[in-house]
Amino acid sequence: MSNMSTMYQTDNQITNQNISNNKPLYLVDSHCHLDTLDYTTKTVEQVLAVAAERDVQHCLAVATTLSGYRSMRQILNPYQQCLSFSCGVHPLNLDDEPFDLALFETLAQSDNVVALGETGLDYYYQQDNIEKQQDAFRAHIRLGRKLGKPVIVHTRNAREDTIKILKEEQVLSGVLHCFTEDLDTAKQLLDIGFYISFSGILTFKNAESLREVARYVPLDRILIETDSPYLAPVPYRGKENQPANVREVAEYLAALKGVPLTTIAEQTTKNFSKLFNITV
Fold it and tell me: Cα(57)–Cα(103) distance, rounded to whole angstroms?
């Protein structure tokens, strides 16, 4: 595992030299698929313990199908003291099972469900069901408004339609997770009150345009995430990502912004609590 002197090789050789370790840290992984990690050689309890050792004290476990949400809760319910949940259907999973809106609303009303999604649009992998994707996306937003809960949004090759639908449906609040879009998209999302979440992609060598966005987005609108088990940050690329590695994202963002790690930890945790209306 990396330490405070970790140096990442990037296009402009950013170093993590502005970190202070004088205060205890409280980091939140705002988006992970904790139920899909490989548990053949470890347990959920061990994964969360490793995360806590690296000051990652809370995780938002995100569903991609309704049946997956129910099985996720069975696996993760014993650890509710350090977890919260999001219920929804990923655009790439809409063909896996019927989208039962009545069931969705029932599940989403649980007190431990703090957000709806992950939802959104993905035209990169699927273009034969665009209308179905858009209908489901609108349904998530509408239910979010009805229940007073934010949406967690995925978009790929669909930025214009994503923003259009968010505006048309007058989205209550939400976050564009694992942000990889351009600066103009970030500005439009900020204008409608959205948060922007950065993942381990921020540390990738070829991600300078994304780093430009991260420099621009104000600290009070940023979340950090792993999208575990995917997208492990440098220096863990190619390995299974875990919530503990949100520490790398926080460290890198601190260096990028030129602020102490404590500032990133405090502000992103505050943002998480505000967006999802919970105290962590």
Answer: 31
Is 70 exceeded by the pLDDT of residue 247? yes
Angle at 109 between CA 122 and CA 89, to 5 degrees: 15
Residues 6+ apart with CB under 8 A from 43: none
* Res 203: pLDDT: 97
Q: Are 24 and 266 in contact (CB under 8 A)?
A: no
Q: Which residues contact 205 (CB under 8 A, 6 or more apart)?
A: 9, 10, 11, 234
Mean pLDDT score of the chain: 92
Say how far apart CA 280 and CA 258 lie, in whole Å: 26
Q: What is the largest CA-CA distance in the chain?
A: 53
Phi-psi region of 54 (alpha: psi -120 to 50; beta: other; left: phi over 0): alpha
Cα gap 131→136, rounded to integer Å:
9
Q: Residue 176 has which token pair?
A: 């564009």
Per-residue pLDDT tens over the stretch 264-277: 999 999 999 999 99
pTM of this structure: 0.91
76-93 CB burial, b ≥16 within 10 A, e <16: beeeeebbbbbbbbbbbb
